[in-house]
Amino acid sequence: MLQQGGTVNHWFSIFKIIGFAVLGGYLYFRFKPQFDRGEALLSRFIIPINIIVLFLLTISTIPQISSTIPRIGNTKYPEFIHHHLNQTDMNRQFKGYYEDLQYHNNFFSVLWQLEKQKNTGGVPYKIDVFYQKSPLFFELYPNLDTLYKYTSFTTNKWGMRDLEYSKIPPKNTVRIAVIGSSNELGGGVLDDKVFEQIVEQKLNKHHGKGTLKFEVLNFAYPNASFILHQETIRKKVLDFQPSILLFCIHKPDKKRIYQNLKKDLLDSPRYKLNPEIFRDSIPWFSQFEQFLASKNIKNLHYVSERDQKKYGEEILRWSFANLEQLTKKANTQNFMVYVPSVSALDSDFYPYCSMTSGTSFRCIDLANCFKLIEDKSSLMLNAWDDHPNQQAHQLIGNLLYNELVSELQLNCKKPKKRPVIRYNSKGERIYSK
Q1: Rounded distance, CA 161 to CA 180, Å?
Q2: Based on the domain organization, do 63 and 209 belong to the same domain?
Q3: 382 Cβ contact list (under 8 Å, min separation 6)
């Protein structure tokens, strides 16, 4: 219908002509008796004047004629009726447009070809591999052995995409925890080719001297953000007694942290039904609410694109400070690791690093890991998924390994002694040296 605008305008013109003709007929018969009796001089001119005006109004509605009428200022004369849509109708005319593009056909040749590739063999590209265990706490399903993004995807008994590890680190072991999202999870890449596995292999090969051993544990899951990392640390990561924590961050995280906050908190049925559940089950939640109030961040449901990034920066600053408090007793070395996105190579490392000011976080920049690759699209999983592929994971792993060797001074320092974790009768963690 929208493509037949010329036909619609043509019918409008016909209807207007008929309308003016009916009006002219009414005026003619209304004043004809007065004209016949010659009751007033003015009445003799009413019918001719009306006929002339109606004639001009009628021809002005014909597109071929109205388009030749000169403009007076910015307005065509006469133009008493217009067909401009109001704002509501303008929004409605495009409603469903982008959704319709999802149903590809041969008219969209590129999308059609991509969809054919994506559905090869009838196997779904993505499946649900994680779930919400408690408020703001998500983890992967344990003991998975499936296909995810057309690639083998397995998890251990702890719900991590990693090897099997004991909860208590073996003697003389430096345990490193990677906390991140889908880039760190490595969907579409073989289990042993994810960059955290590459780092572990290289550390043990070059620095695992004698009985010294390195373990790199992957706590990543899709769509994670720094707000969700708080609960991942509190409820899972610290139980494995890591010495070093690597918090991976990416260019979109300023916006993502707001979106996750809205989706996993404000729009959460649990929060809507009973916000007290969050306050009772999450110790830091009341502090977070106080922080939002102190920054005058009130209505998070309706936030502009610009303010999403602004609020995201404020929330990230708070997140780094709170993560330090959560890990303080564990005596961990905390790092913010900037991992570049294949599709967004301009670095936000320094703005992110500045957000850790006032904390003991150290910053590692991996933004240059792709600089020698001319065709950046060759680092993507495929044409419809810009997550890093196996080659990209290898580059990330190589640079992260080099940075860790430098930061930890592995050639001249022994790893820090880990505190022993015990639990009191209430199930609370107690740290002792």
Answers
A1: 12
A2: no
A3: 117, 188
User: In 137-265, which ranges are continuous DSSP H helix?
Assistant: 182-185, 195-207, 226-235, 253-261
**pLDDT tens for the 433 residues of the chain, in order:** 334 444 545 555 666 667 767 776 776 676 666 656 555 545 556 666 666 766 666 666 555 555 555 544 444 444 444 555 665 565 555 444 444 444 444 444 455 455 555 555 567 888 889 988 888 889 999 999 999 999 999 999 999 999 999 999 999 999 999 999 999 999 999 999 999 999 999 999 999 888 889 999 999 999 899 989 999 999 999 999 999 999 999 988 887 887 777 777 777 777 777 878 788 888 898 888 888 888 777 666 666 767 777 788 889 999 999 999 999 999 999 999 999 988 766 678 898 999 999 999 999 999 999 988 888 889 999 988 999 999 999 999 999 999 999 998 876 545 455 555 555 555 555 555 4
Are both 40 and 136 inside the same structural domain?
no
Number of structural domains in the chain: 2
Burial of 186 (0-12, 13-18, 19+ CB in 10 A): buried
For residues 329 and 419, give the distance between their C-alpha atoms in angstroms, rounded to a whole number. Answer: 8
Cis peptide before 283 (omega within 30 of 0): no
Q: How far is CA 199 from the centre of its chain?
A: 28
DSSP state of 227: H
Q: H or E element: which one contains 213?
A: strand 213-218
Q: Which residues pair with 334 in a beta bridge?
A: 245
Indicate the residue type of 115. E
CA nearest neighbour of 35 among 21, 20, 51, 19: 51
Residues 6 or more apart whose CB falls under 8 angstroms from that of 244 comprise 174, 175, 176, 177, 332, 333, 335, 408
Dihedral, CA of residue 375, residue 377, residue 381 and residue 382, to nearest 10: -130
Contacts of 55 (CB under 8 A, 6+ apart): none
> Has residue 237 been placed in a domain?
yes
Mark whether 200 and 328 lie in a shared domain. Answer: yes
Crossing angle of helices 226-235 and 305-327, in 10° steps, is 20
Is residue 34, in this structure, part of any structural domain at all? yes
Tell me which residue range forms the domain holding 36: 2-93
Tokens of 111: 């999308």
